[in-house]
Design a protein that fits this description.
The structure is a single chain. α1 packs across α6 and α4 runs parallel beside α7. The longest helix is centred in the N-terminal third of the chain and has 21 residues. This protein has 136 residues and is mainly alpha-helical. Helix content is 73%, strand content 0%.
Length: 136
């Protein structure tokens, strides 16, 4: 389903390449970081990012959010799966493109969808609205 997400994005003329989508991914990331730091009494980004990295330990459950978090954190969060820091630096649209494909994939998997809601609730809602518009 992930690669089908890329195909749909390509066929829809890269609808993932959207400043608002990118902003929502970043906003959701910052909100999760803040919430996580407060609830775990962690005072620095380094400590929060390290703890989140350790939490992302199940390929089945976390591969999609792990990849997106690696991209949005510029490689500072490294969970169970990711493209590697260089991948995100080479293409400014990589984050939104991968997030689109992962969110599409999550539409068909309860576990991945639940994780996507946990980490990227606003970006996921925006993605779903955008996808609905694209198929009209």
């Amino acid at each position: 389903f992930h690669e089908h997400g890329h195909l749909i994005d390509d066929m829809a003329k890269n609808i993932s390449h959207d400043d608002k989508f990118q902003k929502l991914l970043n906003d959701d990331y910052r909100a999760y970081m803040t919430s996580y730091g407060k609830s775990n009494n962690l005072k620095t980004f380094d400590k929060v990012q390290s703890a989140i990295s350790k939490d992302l330990n199940s390929m089945r459950k976390h591969s999609a959010v792990s990849d997106i978090l690696e991209g949005v954190s510029e490689g500072n969060i490294r969970g169970v799966a990711g493209h590697g820091a260089d991948y995100w630096k080479k293409n400014s649209d990589a984050l939104s493109s991968e997030a689109f494909a992962h969110m599409y994939e999550a539409q068909f998997d309860k576990t991945r969808y639940s994780e996507m809601q946990k980490y990227f609730p606003n970006a996921l809602k925006y993605f779903e609205n955008k996808l609905e518009e694209a198929v009209k």
